Amino acid sequence: MSTPLDTLFVRTRSENRAALIGYLPAGFPTQQGCIDALTAMVEGGVDAIEIGYPYSDPVMDGPVIQAAADTSLRNGTGAAEVMATLAAIAKIAPTVVMTYWNPIEKYGVDKFLADIKGNGGSGVITPDLTIEESDPWIAASTSHDTNRIYVVAPSTLEERLRKVTAATSGFVYAASLMGVTGTRTTVSSSARGLVSRLREVTDLPIAVGLGVSTPEQASEVAQYADGVIVGSAFIRLLQEAHNPQDGIAKVRALAQDLAKGLQRS
User: Which of 19, 72, 87, 123 has the least C-beta neighbours within 10 A?
Assistant: First the structure.
């Protein structure tokens, strides 16, 4: 299997830099506004996109992303809107969907994966799917040539890291801390330690998320991780914008600033 996401990490490793991954929930701030903002991220230097499937009962999302998801749900965002966003953005950058398990189960596992692939998606991040319950998902995602991306935390023990990474493809999502997503003044020191532990059990690319929001933080993480995931910082700019055009301009500018510091020294 080789997806645009796989190809991206081959390229960024050859360039001795980390990949920049930007996140927004589909349908936020509006359906078209989301597509416009994601396009601005790519224009600004974001390498890959993570589209959130808005969900009413998230376990990993902090208040900023929860508020954005609430807006998205009020806008009527569902599976069709997620897939439409995927189809639009996968044309310009490697794109994955991040979703809790319940929407996949409701949609139908095989149909969901077929539509992810059919709309150009490279993979799916499933933050609440445990490895013990993954056999049907592993079989189906393998059949559909779609990367399955699992999330690991600093508390994950070595034996479990081995099990999870053995089932992962595309990249490993390394949560930088215990807790929920959100912008923070510093990146947790546990992120570097988790990445180091992961290097001992897998050759897969490792992307760090949760808490990365500034160019300085992105540059710091880029020194030891293969990917830097930024979500809440982009969302906050859109939430605080005076108008849609202002929000789009600020998203593009932040992407440009983040992208400048991804080269490894």
Answer: 87
